[in-house]
From TrEMBL:
<protein>
    <recommendedName>
        <fullName>ABC transporter domain-containing protein</fullName>
    </recommendedName>
</protein>
<dbReference type="InterPro" id="IPR015854">
    <property type="entry name" value="ABC_transpr_LolD-like"/>
</dbReference>
<dbReference type="InterPro" id="IPR027417">
    <property type="entry name" value="P-loop_NTPase"/>
</dbReference>
Length: 74
C-alpha cells in the first residue's frame, strides 16, 4: 500500500486489498481509503466482500463481464 500511494497518484486501484486481513486491519485499510478519497483521490476497490463494498460511495456489480448493478451508497 505504501508503495502505491507514495507517489501521490490521482487514482488508486486496489484489487482485493482486504482479502487476507483480519477485521481490525480491514477497518484500518478502509479508513486510509476514506482519507485518500477525502483528499480528492479516486479510489477503486475490487472486492468480493459485501462488507467492504458497502463501505464505498458507489458500487458497481458485474457478472459475466456485464454490469448488473450500479448504485450510490451515499
Amino acid at each position: 500500500m505504501a508503495r502505491a500511494i507514495v507517489t501521490n497518484p490521482s487514482m488508486l486501484l486496489a484489487d482485493e486489498p482486504t482479502g487476507a486481513l483480519d477485521s481490525h486491519s480491514t477497518e484500518e485499510v478502509l479508513a486510509l481509503f476514506d482519507a485518500l478519497n477525502a483528499d480528492g483521490r479516486t479510489v477503486v476497490v475490487i472486492t468480493h466482500e459485501d462488507e467492504v463494498a458497502a463501505h464505498a460511495g458507489r458500487v458497481v456489480r458485474m457478472r459475466d463481464g456485464l454490469v448488473v448493478e450500479d448504485r450510490s451508497n451515499r
